[in-house]
Amino acid sequence: MRREPRPKRSQYSMTEHTAATVSVAGTRRGRKYAGLFLVAIPVFLVAWMVIWPILTAIPRSLMQVGTDGSTSFSFANYQFFFSDRYSLNNLTVTLWTTMVCAALLLVICLPLALYLRFTSNRIAAFVQSLAIFPMFVPSIILSYAFIRVLGPNGTVDLLLNGVGLPRIRSPYLTPWGPVIGLVWDNIPLTVLILVSGLGAVSNATIEAARDVGARRLAILWHIILPRITNSILVAISFGVLGIFSSFTLPYVLGPAAPEMMGPFMQRTFRDLQNPPMAITQAVITFAFCIVFGLFYIRSVAKNRTP
Amino acid sequence: MSVLKISSVSKYFPGGTKAVDSFSLDVADGELVCLLGPSGSGKSTLLRMVGGFEDPSSGLITIDGEDITHLPPERRPTGMVFQSHALWTHMNVFDNLAFGLKLRRTGKSEIREKVEAVLDLVGLAGYGERKTHQLSGGQQQRVALARSLVLEPKILLLDEPFASLDQHLRERLREEVRDIQQRLKITTLFVTHGQDEALSMADRIVVMRDGRTEQIDRPDVVYRNPQTPFVAGFIGTMNLIDGEVAHGRFHRAGLSLDLPISDGPAILAMRPEALDLSLADQGQAVVHRVTDYGTHGLVDLDLPEAIRVKAMVDHPDRFSTGQSVNLAPRAVAAFRDGRQVFRS
C-alpha cells in the first residue's frame, strides 16, 4: 500500500513554528541572563566592599591575641568598650549628635519641603537652589567656611565687634560645631526626599480636605503627614546613617574629647595603633546603624506593597 | 431653599489669560445645571470659583443671598466631588466620610449614624472598613460623592466625576447620581465635556466657550434649537455647510434649498436624523461610507466642493459605497453672524 506523502507546506510550517518557539525561548533565556548579569555587578560590589568586611570584622573583634602570638575567642574588646568611660562618652556624644541633628533636620526641612511643594514662584525657585546648594560643597570647604564665620574672630565676631557688642560663644570645638555642620550638610538630601514624598500628595486631596472644612494644621496633621510618614522615615534613616558614621565635620569642628565614633575609630587605629579595638568600635557603630537601616528597608518594602 | 447666583464673574490668570469672562447664572433650588463645553472653555475654573478654590478677578457669587465670593472653601456651604476622586488613601472608607464631621465636632454616635446612612444611599452599605485601594473605580467615585453628601452641603459641585470611568460604568453612575440628587433635592452644578452626560442628567445646560456663555436652556431645547453655530456643532452631530443665500434660496455644493432670509452668507445646519436619502442616477451626493450601528445606520455622503455630510438611516443595508443619492432635509436651521436666523 502506497503511503500518501505528507504535504510539504505543513512540514515547513511545523519547522517554522518549532524554530520560532526555540527562538522565543532562547530570547527569554538571554534576557534572563542579561538581567542577572546587570544585577550581579552591584551585588558583587556590595558583597565585596560591605558584607565581606563586616563578616570578617565581627570574628576579628572577638579575637584576643596573646603575648605569645596565639589567638583565642574572647569578648574582652567589647567588655573594655562598654566599661571604659571614655569610649562610652564617645558613643553617647555620637548618639546625642545624631538625635539632635535628626530632630533639627526634621524641624528645618519639613517646613522647607512643604513650602517648596506648595509654592511655585521665583522665591521658591531661589529657596530650592539655596537648599540644594550644600550638596555641591565638600565637607572640608564647609568646615573652613564654618570656622571663618562662626569660629573665634570669625565674621560674626567681627560684625558684633563693629557694632560694639560682645563676642559670641563660638560653637567651634564644642559638640554644637558638628551639629551645625552636619545639619547644613544633610539639608539637601533630606529636603529632596521629603519633596519627593510630598509629590505623592496630590493637590486634589488637599482641596478635598479643605472642602470638608479642614484648615492648614488639620490638613498637615491628618492628610499630609500620614501620607509622607515613609518619606520622613527614609530621610531620617539616611541622615542618621550618614551622621552616625561621619568623620570630616566632627573631626574638624568637634571637641577633642568626647569625640564622635568616626574620629574615635580613626584615632584608635592610627594614633593608638590598636586595630582590634578600632574594629570593635566599627562593629558597635554598625550595630547602631543597622537599626536605622532596617527602618529604611521596612519603609521601602512597605512602599512596594499596595 | 438653596439658590446659587453667579453675577458677572470673571477670572484672569497671571499673564492676562481670560478663563471666565463676565459669566452670570442663577441656579434654582434643587436644580441640576450642567456646565458643558470643550477643554479650556472655563467650566472647571467657574466650578472651582464656586467651590472657593479659585478667587474670582471680579463679580459676585451668592448662596441663599449670602456673599461667598472670597470665602475660603472650608467656610463655604458647598461640597465638591473631584474628577480624580481625591480620596485619602491612608484612611478607610468610614474615616474618609467621618473626617469632615469630626472637624465639625459631631458626636461619635451621630457620625456613625450619618456615615452609615449616606453609605446606604450610595449603595455601599457595609463598605466602611474597606481601604480605598480595595474599591473599584466606580465604588471610589461613590465614596467621593458620599463624602460630600454626608456634610449636607447646600450646593453640590461635581467636576467631571465620571471622566476616569469606562462607558458602561459611567452610564450607570450618572443614573444613580441623578436619582440621589432628585431624592435629596440638592442644588447641583455639574461640569462635563460629555454631551451625553449633560443631555441625560441636567435640568438645564450651560454651553460654554472661551469663558463665555453660548446658550443656557433645557437639554431638549439646546439640542433642537441651538442658538449659535458653535452649540449646533458641539451638541450632537450636526451637518454645517457654509453657503450663500440669494433670493430666498441657499446655494452651495450642488444644494439649493428654500431659506427665507435676506441675501448674504449663511451657515446651513441639518441634523443627520432630519435628512432623507433617496437613490438617484445623477444625485446630489455620492455615498462614501455606510456604518451599521445595529439600531440605525450612518451614511457619510460626499457633496461637490469636498463637503461631507452625515445622514441617519433606518435601513443601512439599502445603501453602499459609490451609490448616487439625493438629499431632502426635513428640518434646517440657519446661522448668520454667529446667531440663529432661521429654523424650520
From TrEMBL, chain A:
<keyword id="KW-1003">Cell membrane</keyword>
<keyword id="KW-1133">Transmembrane helix</keyword>
<feature type="transmembrane region" description="Helical">
    <location>
        <begin position="232"/>
        <end position="257"/>
    </location>
</feature>
<feature type="transmembrane region" description="Helical">
    <location>
        <begin position="33"/>
        <end position="55"/>
    </location>
</feature>
<feature type="transmembrane region" description="Helical">
    <location>
        <begin position="93"/>
        <end position="116"/>
    </location>
</feature>
<keyword id="KW-0472">Membrane</keyword>
<feature type="transmembrane region" description="Helical">
    <location>
        <begin position="277"/>
        <end position="297"/>
    </location>
</feature>
<dbReference type="InterPro" id="IPR035906">
    <property type="entry name" value="MetI-like_sf"/>
</dbReference>
<dbReference type="GO" id="GO:0055085">
    <property type="term" value="P:transmembrane transport"/>
</dbReference>
<feature type="domain" description="ABC transmembrane type-1">
    <location>
        <begin position="91"/>
        <end position="296"/>
    </location>
</feature>
<dbReference type="Pfam" id="PF00528">
    <property type="entry name" value="BPD_transp_1"/>
</dbReference>
<keyword id="KW-0812">Transmembrane</keyword>
<feature type="transmembrane region" description="Helical">
    <location>
        <begin position="123"/>
        <end position="147"/>
    </location>
</feature>
<dbReference type="InterPro" id="IPR000515">
    <property type="entry name" value="MetI-like"/>
</dbReference>
<keyword id="KW-0813">Transport</keyword>
<dbReference type="GO" id="GO:0005886">
    <property type="term" value="C:plasma membrane"/>
</dbReference>
<feature type="transmembrane region" description="Helical">
    <location>
        <begin position="187"/>
        <end position="206"/>
    </location>
</feature>
<comment type="similarity">
    <text>Belongs to the binding-protein-dependent transport system permease family. CysTW subfamily.</text>
</comment>
<protein>
    <submittedName>
        <fullName>ABC-type spermidine/putrescine transport system, permease component I</fullName>
    </submittedName>
</protein>
UniProtKB/TrEMBL annotation, chain B:
<dbReference type="InterPro" id="IPR017871">
    <property type="entry name" value="ABC_transporter-like_CS"/>
</dbReference>
<dbReference type="InterPro" id="IPR013611">
    <property type="entry name" value="Transp-assoc_OB_typ2"/>
</dbReference>
<protein>
    <submittedName>
        <fullName>Putative spermidine/putrescine transport system ATP-binding protein</fullName>
    </submittedName>
</protein>
<dbReference type="GO" id="GO:0016887">
    <property type="term" value="F:ATP hydrolysis activity"/>
</dbReference>
<dbReference type="InterPro" id="IPR008995">
    <property type="entry name" value="Mo/tungstate-bd_C_term_dom"/>
</dbReference>
<comment type="similarity">
    <text>Belongs to the ABC transporter superfamily.</text>
</comment>
<dbReference type="Pfam" id="PF00005">
    <property type="entry name" value="ABC_tran"/>
</dbReference>
<dbReference type="GO" id="GO:0005524">
    <property type="term" value="F:ATP binding"/>
</dbReference>
<keyword id="KW-0067">ATP-binding</keyword>
<dbReference type="InterPro" id="IPR003593">
    <property type="entry name" value="AAA+_ATPase"/>
</dbReference>
<dbReference type="Pfam" id="PF08402">
    <property type="entry name" value="TOBE_2"/>
</dbReference>
<keyword id="KW-0813">Transport</keyword>
<dbReference type="GO" id="GO:0015697">
    <property type="term" value="P:quaternary ammonium group transport"/>
</dbReference>
<keyword id="KW-0547">Nucleotide-binding</keyword>
<dbReference type="InterPro" id="IPR003439">
    <property type="entry name" value="ABC_transporter-like_ATP-bd"/>
</dbReference>
<feature type="domain" description="ABC transporter">
    <location>
        <begin position="4"/>
        <end position="235"/>
    </location>
</feature>
<dbReference type="GO" id="GO:0043190">
    <property type="term" value="C:ATP-binding cassette (ABC) transporter complex"/>
</dbReference>
<dbReference type="GO" id="GO:0022857">
    <property type="term" value="F:transmembrane transporter activity"/>
</dbReference>
<dbReference type="InterPro" id="IPR050093">
    <property type="entry name" value="ABC_SmlMolc_Importer"/>
</dbReference>
<dbReference type="InterPro" id="IPR027417">
    <property type="entry name" value="P-loop_NTPase"/>
</dbReference>
